[in-house]
Every structure is written in C-alpha cells, then in structure tokens.
Write a structure and sequence with these properties.
57% of the residues lie in helices and 0% in strands. By secondary structure, the chain is mainly α. The protein folds into 2 domains: 80 residues, no CATH class; 62 residues, Orthogonal Bundle (Hypothetical Protein Yqey, Chain: A, domain1). The termini are far apart.
C-alpha cells in the first residue's frame, strides 16, 4: 500500500506523527529522554538528522510549492551519507577560484554519483562546473 504524501498539515512531523521520527540507530523519538542520555543509552548518532527526516521535510516543502527548498532538502538527505570531511572538501572546492579546472569538479561529481549514490549532489556539482567555466571562475585567485 502506497503511503499518503506528507503535506503542510503534517508539519512539524515530531508533533503530528512522532512515531515516524526514528533516529539513525532505530530509536524512536519517544526514547530520547534525559534519563537515557544520563544512562549512556543515547549517543550523538541518535540525535543526528536522518535522510528519512530530510526526505519528509522535502515532501512537505513540495506540497506547498517550495520546490527549491524541497530540492535542497533532498540533496541534504544525500549529504548525510558523506563524512564531514568529504562535505567540507566539496564545499571548499565549490568556492569560486578554488578548483583549478572544470575536471576537478567533474571528478567530484563522478565520485558522488558512482561511489556515494548521490546523484542530486552530483548534478549540482556538474551544474557548478558548467557555470564556473562559463564565468571564468577556475583561475586561481588566491
């Protein structure tokens, strides 16, 4: 049975459908209590945003016509699979004047698509590569 798409009426999900809020280690929202933290039963992994939560937020954004926000949230869901150091390296490379050539960005996009299963992020980096080439933003400026 197909799940009914989320809408603005479902926002915030933690209040309207708390049973849908599940952490990375499978713990439900109801288990995130101070006592559990003190007892060591809750870790940072239980508090991190999940791809599912970001996808749900994207669904809600789409339902109210916020397609750009929905796209950003979907890319963010893909980013949860990357390490913090990978995210920061890509961020640094996307700063104008940091990538030496279009190939630098296209290599990153290929890795995102083929090794990280992050096609939306790969598309974003490829779009940046085309734009940077058009605007001459590959020259080393620093």
């Amino acid at each position: 049975m197909a799940k009914t798409p989320l809408t603005a009426n479902d926002y915030p999900i933690a209040e309207t459908q708390p049973e849908e809020v599940i952490g990375n280690r499978g713990k439900p929202l109801s288990s995130l209590m101070m006592e559990s933290v003190i007892n060591g039963n809750i870790s940072m992994e239980d508090l991190r945003i999940t791809p599912q939560a970001l996808e749900q937020q994207a669904e809600i954004a789409s339902s109210v016509g916020r397609s750009a926000l929905a796209s950003n949230l979907k890319r963010a869901a893909e980013m949860t699979r990357l390490s913090q150091s990978e995210v920061m390296a890509i961020y640094e490379l996307l700063r104008p004047g940091r990538a030496v050539s279009k190939d630098n960005l296209l290599d990153v996009a290929q890795r995102l698509r083929n090794e990280q299963d992050a096609p939306l992020l790969a598309d974003f980096v490829e779009e940046a590569a085309r734009f940077y080439e058009k605007r001459g933003l590959f020259r080393k400026r620093y």
